[in-house]
Batch of 2 targets.
Target 1
Amino acid sequence: MLLYSLDLFGTAVFAISGAWVACRKDMDIFGAMVLAFVTAVGGGTIRDLLLGSTPVFWFQDTLYITVIFASTLLAIALRNWHEKAQWPLQVADALGLAVFVVIGVGKALAYGAEPVVAVMMGVLTGCGGGAIRDVLADEMPNVLRKEVYASAAIAGGAVFVFLNPVLGYAATTVISASLVLFMRLFALYNNISLPRFQLPQVSK
Amino acid sequence: MLLYSLDLFGTAVFAISGAWVACRKDMDIFGAMVLAFVTAVGGGTIRDLLLGSTPVFWFQDTLYITVIFASTLLAIALRNWHEKAQWPLQVADALGLAVFVVIGVGKALAYGAEPVVAVMMGVLTGCGGGAIRDVLADEMPNVLRKEVYASAAIAGGAVFVFLNPVLGYAATTVISASLVLFMRLFALYNNISLPRFQLPQVSK
Amino acid sequence: MLLYSLDLFGTAVFAISGAWVACRKDMDIFGAMVLAFVTAVGGGTIRDLLLGSTPVFWFQDTLYITVIFASTLLAIALRNWHEKAQWPLQVADALGLAVFVVIGVGKALAYGAEPVVAVMMGVLTGCGGGAIRDVLADEMPNVLRKEVYASAAIAGGAVFVFLNPVLGYAATTVISASLVLFMRLFALYNNISLPRFQLPQVSK
């Protein structure tokens, strides 16, 4: 199926981004494998745990693991192209985000989640892995502080929840994923971020 | 029920504290939502995962999510009152801690937990969310290093486990929660902390 | 059983290492308990969550908790011997790693895991607790960046998966655990690390 292929594609892209963070952080090859793994499947894994869908999704279908390991080796081999790959990688990452979000929302709905919870599960599936990657790399998760990344996921998830009863799964998936992809690329291209709200100076 | 109302109150207070940490850390509004969410329900969520009580508690009852989102918006709107709110917020936080602990111990006992495990689940419910908040904010969890916070939770949990078979759930809940509240406020007022044990200088 | 005794021994050793990290990080006694706990049972706990084996393993058998609390008090009492204990502690830690890995692989296989997943569960059981400890101590997990620690776990896990159908559980356990122990001690003694792959300077 197309969605499954795109899911594996997103897994590969997320894994590469995780492996390169590991390289940047001076980790060894095991660290690169771990960071690639948590970036690629971390969000979906936490979603599965919260839903009670265990063993988790990559437990039976080891193709995910194969893709992640191959992507990690590829990322290490091509690490000198890291900077040149920034722009294509971000586009690919936006596609991965779009696919992960619709898969996450769909699975949550299949488990009987309320609409708002389903949207959250979609956002978690799309953004959770990158957040765990950043925590393991001893950084504050990037998704919490800048750019339109989570917002694209939220918008896509909300549209999915609304359209799904009307248009059915297939059409809803295409529309929602396209929306995420478009919003993410539009924000990237125009360098748009969400507003921040700073506190007045605190005496601490 | 009173306990449910207090639970939602504690959820709101914890959410506000999470949102303000997000503001202090220069996160955007999505980051504030996430930090509010993990602070408010993170401890109870991990408790549910460990118990095998899935889907987790906020999955069906979306009132928690509504309270958290409203509290986050309130916290952002009132962020200039951050410093003035320190003292009332800490009192409210102590009440939230007390409620979360007794709920956590009660749920663990209902799942057949041994006494010591039930106390740990209560402490986790009360203190776990704040610890995850600190990890996401790239800080060492405050609860691990200072003040009588976890100790109040432990004492309340232990009293709960002992009194529950004797006095029944209602009376035990009131007494244990009052103990947590009293200990926490007493320590705050008198600025009491647990002892630390430093290592001799390590050659590293 | 011997394996159970060694499991408790490994639990004690991991708990001591966690407690000493807490001391080094200037945490209080509650922080030491928490760090000892997550170091000792964190890896196995996440393994159980991923497998859907809930409540988790230390929920019924509170002997783990007793061992951890006693080890923490011991570690605090003996904290001045911290430096002198480095070498014997690393040897004991290697034994704990070996035991945790074979237990983790065995449990995953019992849950019907594919070979590669079983190896990952073994590595997680052995290395996960230390990684959580480091995250809570606001450091990058050591296991991701240096020394032959995870590699020993991987090798032992892989050998376990291959030999188990041939030699049976008992012999396989002994051989695999010995391999982990040997590789870890050999690497320690010779100060061997995995290669790292640095990125070219990134403009960021």
Target 2
Amino acid sequence: MLSPKFSELVRALRCLPSVGAKTAQRMALQLIERDRQGAELIVSTLTAALSDIGRCERCQALSETPVCPICADEQRDHAQLCIVESLTDWLAIEQSGAFQGYYFLLSGRLSPLDGIGPREIGVDRLMVRLDDPAIEEVILATSATIEGEATASYLQSMMAGSRYRVSRLAQGVPMGGELEYLDGHTLALALRSRRPITDD
Amino acid sequence: MLSPKFSELVRALRCLPSVGAKTAQRMALQLIERDRQGAELIVSTLTAALSDIGRCERCQALSETPVCPICADEQRDHAQLCIVESLTDWLAIEQSGAFQGYYFLLSGRLSPLDGIGPREIGVDRLMVRLDDPAIEEVILATSATIEGEATASYLQSMMAGSRYRVSRLAQGVPMGGELEYLDGHTLALALRSRRPITDD
């Protein structure tokens, strides 16, 4: 009914996250009917991104250069390496501004049932990165889910007896969290990991 | 922090309807990190759509050919012309399957305060289309909003005294509409336009 090339575009747009048939059609109409300039910008930026963005050979984050700007930044703290499981987690930590060391990005988390083992998430590349003699502390910043915890404990056992300290993100009550609405696990954990109040 | 080409892609994706900064970032990550094949498909289909999709010279709908498949279909009812204000309205009527005539697509509705007059919505092209001697009825299918009504009544006065009948979509209680939740205007209208019950 509508032109076949329009339908093909609608079908292609459905690969975007949480875009269904109706939304894809609205997007395609917007691009072809009302905002051809925007559509051309998407084509050119997406083409450039696809051809020029690869992975940083040190941390595996997206980068246009063989080594990403963060890994290339000599001002950061060489003693700390933070291991994250996704680029969004990497971004979240970097945007918090609380970490000055370097990162290593796993390609996801261990999930043996889905056939995702250490090799699939890039543990071999991590081993190479860990050879860096400057590293004094490795921070396991995988998420607090079952798979994230499994990944962290696998890495922890793998690094047992190594010369650097291994740490894990603290768990507890989030900022602004009302105890009343917090799940029991988190509350129990926060209680067990309670800190003595000091005067500093 | 992330590569500049990635940020440019995120900015470009924000031209899509109801896509903000967070969603655009998620889309860009999906395209570059996880689904490069999908990204390449978007580039190729969007490029093809931009270069090959124009407007039908008879009805102004999107078309890859000078005359769209509907206008080129000689089997449809030449006596009826349905005037719609957007491609989505056009699609909605066509998908209902209740109309077998031809369409004419206005580029929006009259909105004098925004400087959108008859020429901007393509009334001159409509005049050319209305020269077709086969037309017996013109159906004004603009939306039931203030601007839609204004557009319909402008067109109606423009066509006053012409050889064809001019009609308007019926207004009233929608299918499945509970009277209790219907607005007063619609209810009053439905009451005023009440139909005698016949036995056919």
